[in-house]
Amino acid sequence: MKRLACFVVCFAGLAGLVPAARAYPCAPKTIAPRPTETPDAEADRIRKAGGVLKSNYVPPGQSERHGHAEVVIAAPQEIVERHVRAFGQWKDLVPDKFKTSRIVGKEGDDTDVYMQIQIMKGFITLWEIMRFSPTKTVVPGTSAIEGKYLKGNLKDSHALFVMRKVDDRTTVLKVDILISLAIAAPQEIIDEELRDYAGDAVRGLREKAEAAAKAEGRQ
């Protein structure tokens, strides 16, 4: 209800029904940076917190707040990466939010992906094309896949998937997601939408990767 109220005030402001300077009292949530953790300690922290952690922050090198989520997956890093890169199947990860996702081009080693996504419980449909990099090794045992905004009806977007090997059958997946609208909106509502997207994404990827690992006898 609070989310809807914030959106109503936001769109009323855009329509000139209320003064633009009258901001809705929505305070953004923040997270504090953590010291470097070992893979085992990181996995234990996420498990003790309930299996999925969600938050908001500004990632290094970025200027806007992202939705952030972390999950432990009972599958090898290779299988997790395979499902992150299955761009054409992303619509199956979060079917109530993704209307479609498909590969529309290649540029060298990069992959261009067209997506339609829904916000406000399907009230608004957004579209974009993002360019995803090949998988890069951050440090031994940790890899990353990054997507950057090319075009669409958004102001900007960004996605970063980081996979960290815990052992041969366990991986920590972290996701940062930005969907920046071309219209002003209360930061608290943006934060909540982005947290939900990040959380739903890691849950969907966990389900797909663990099912594949079980089928391949690698759990």
Assign the CATH class. Alpha Beta
- Number of domains in the coordinates? 1
Mean pLDDT value: 86
Proportion of residues in β-strands: 35-45%
Q: Report the end-to-end length measured between terminal Cα atoms.
A: 41 Å
Number of strands: 9
Write out the CATH superfamily name.
START domain
* Low-confidence region ranges: 4-33
Rg, nearest Å: 18 Å
Task: State the CATH topology.
Answer: Alpha-D-Glucose-1,6-Bisphosphate, Chain A, domain 4
Query: Helicity, in percent?
Result: 25-40%
The description of the largest β-sheet is: 9 strands, antiparallel
The number of helical runs is: 4
Gross CATH architecture: 2-Layer Sandwich
Order of helices and strands: HHEEHEEEEEEEH
Write down the overall geometry.
globular
Describe what this molecule looks like in 3D.
The chain has 219 residues and is α+β, with helices and mostly antiparallel strands. The chain has a single domain, classed as Alpha-D-Glucose-1,6-Bisphosphate, Chain A, domain 4 (2-Layer Sandwich), CATH 3.30.530. Helices cover 27% and strands 37% of the residues. Helix 3 (77-84) crosses helix 4. Mean pLDDT is 86; it is low at 4-33.
Topology:
Elements: H1 2-14, H2 39-48, E1 52-57, E2 66-73, H3 77-84, E3 98-107, E4 110-119, E5 124-132, E6 136-139, E7 142-152, E8 156-167, E9 170-180, H4 187-215
